[in-house]
Amino acid sequence: MTKLPAILLATLAALWGVLLYTVFSPDEHYPGAATHPEQSEMHVAGAAAAFDAEMIVPGAIAGVLVIAVYLLCLLLGAGKNGASLTFVGVVAASSCLVVGSFLAMTFSFDDYVGDPSPQLVGGFPIPTAWMVFGVWMSPVVFLAVYVAGFRRWVMTEDDRKRLEALIAARQPCSETGS
Amino acid sequence: MEEYRAWIILGCVAAFFAMCIAVGLWAMRKTKSASDFFMAGRDLGFIVTAVAVFSSTMSGFGFVGGPGLVYQMGMSSAWMIVCTGLSYTVCFFLLAKRLRILAEVRESISLPDAVQARYGSRLAGFLTAVAILLGVLGYLGTQILAMATVMQQVLAGVLPVEISLPVCAFISVGLLVFYCVTGGIIASVYTDLAQGLIMMIAALLVFFAVIASVEGGFAGMSETILQDDKGAMSPWGTKGMFGALSWYFVFSLGIAGQPHVITKFMMSRKVEDARYTLPVTVFGFATTALLWLGIGLAMRALVLQGKHPSLEQADGAAAAFLQSYAHPLLAGVVFAGLFAAIMSTADSFLNIGAAAIVHDIPRAIRKRSLKHELFWARVATVAIACVATVFALYSGDLVALLGAFGWGTFAAALVPTVAIGFNWKRATPTAACVAIASSLIINFGLKVSGVEVPYSIDSGAIALLVSLTLFLTISFLSPPPKLDSDIEAVLDF
Q: CATH says B3-394 is which class?
């Protein structure tokens, strides 16, 4: 767990790398959103959607790195209690669901852009359905880990005893701090 | 709007206001010290804490700006919602336990207090308080402006003459100040409880109204929108892939840096409550988010189908839907829910702003708090509300600038300093101060200079990336800090 901040810094450096690569790619001119031709308060993606489809690999890498940042923060927050192999295994397995949903969404976007009559699933186009039912819903497993594993990985019996000892010997803030 | 509809809406809003006054009076009897005023005596049950956490997060922006963004940009802003399951969980892992323990061990009554204790640095505490105060002025200003505008709309339906915006601001801020001054954070969180429940009920009912309003429900909306512009209905919306991902980054990790949200962790009755607080929070936020997505998509589809006239302003999407497609009673509940969303965020900001002025800044400068802190906390609450109201009404673009700057600044300043720093002993006070200062400089610099980040990337995301990188790098390059033994023990949990 002591190496987590270093891994986090390395992940942030990789994120910087992807961003700088994208921004400074000499051949790419991002068209950006435009105002809707008939509705002044609406934007349209227009050609920007096709551009996004071409940039799908850097986008997918950036997204996975962002998710990696969250997961590293989650492990950091779990502290010593989260150092067990079981916890790391559970988090890794749960992460696969989130990352899998994200990648499925990202790569189905490419087909969506090229498809003249996109199919709908659950009321949404396939990549959007992946976002709503996958990327949004899948982190519920982390929530389940927090609730179900609270006594084991968040606040153990030993933690409770240590906290009681700490409170018994506490120092009011008005007497401390520099 | 038909007159009977306007009266029903006014009745619902008046009932909601009466409830806020009653809670303020009840909470006044329970508020006997500064600790009660700022920390609710650290005695909140998990349901109250959970609802206060999600209702503080879902501000008027979510109920008005959210549907407006979906109307304008398609699915882009869904990334601010999609992240919630993961973001709240990460936030709870990072802070729910340690902040609560630190608050008890050091008897901290505010976030800057906790930061000062963690880093043993008055400068870090001072900068945290300054960042909070700047954000509070902007955020509160935009909430007050939103409240006054909605109040003006509500009164316009029943009164023969138009009531001016300053008068509407005076009425709504008067109510807000009444319960915040009398009952402090206790009134704030218990009104949040009622406000959160109203928001959930309103959002659920609106969701069904949304499905019924467009033929084919969500499939009908999707088909209409994607036939017009495929990109709008894609996961990235019209903001594009990198822009949408930058929102995913700043809104998910950023929640752990929102002082009005994470301060609530310090108020719970016991550490173990966090176990049940998290699911209630996530469920509450996800429910209220249905309104955000539902109304935005429905209005975009209805306008594109020619069944509704074009909107003059995207932010009018929610009001237009309620006035045209919702039952009057439902519209009344949602208008009350809208006030609830605005006030539940505004009251939290008033409270942390007052703490910054009467507790944190004096402690950082004079090494001690003010005498008669409870009295001065009430005075400061009134003063902040007055300044923010004047600021909102007369500062022109400056309030919008500070309002927009709020979330990203808090995220960039406090995620490294608090979320990472409270979980990593190696984090240094210098790194914390640099992270806070850089977040202020980058966010203000980019907004004031009007520089557009390529690919519609959110400037708050850039500021967060910079501050996190600086915080980790400086901490690694500095000698390890010497921590007080109790702080070391807290970080060991």
A: mainly alpha
Burial class (CB in 10 A: 0-12, 13-18, 19+), B493: buried
Which residues in A lie closer than 8 A to residue B369 (C-beta atoms)? 174
**Is the pLDDT assigned to residue A175 strictly greater than 60?**
no
Cross-chain Cβ contact A13/B303 below 8 Å: no
Picking from A48, A120, A138, the nearest residue to B240 by CB comes out as A48
H/E segment holding residue A124: strand A124-125
Put simply, the answer to whether A45 touches B230 (Cβ < 8 Å) is yes
pTM for the full model? 0.91
Stretch among A92-96, A168-172, B110-114, B368-372 having the lowest mean pLDDT: A168-172
Residue of A154, A164, A170 best to disrupt the B interface, most CBs of B under 10 A? A154
Chains A, B: CB pairs < 8 Å? 278
By C-alpha distance, the chain B residue nearest A75 is B93
Chain B residues lying within 8 Å of A77, measured CB to CB: 90, 92-95, 419, 423
**Measured between CA atoms, how close is B167 to chain A, in angstroms?**
29
A18 touches B: beta carbon within 8 Å: no
Reported ipTM: the value is 0.93
And the tokens for A126?
A: 């396939």
| A45–B238 CB contact, under 8 Å | yes
Residue of B nearest to A120 (CA): B219
Task: Indicate the domain borders of chain B.
Answer: 3-394
How is chain A split into domains, by residue range?
4-169
How far apart (Å, rounded) are the C-alpha atoms in residues A94 and A103?
A: 14
pLDDT, one tens digit per residue, over B312-358 is 888 888 888 988 888 888 888 888 888 887 887 888 888 889 989 99
Bridge pairing between strands A34-35 and A43-44: antiparallel
**A-chain residue closest to B473, CA distance:** A9
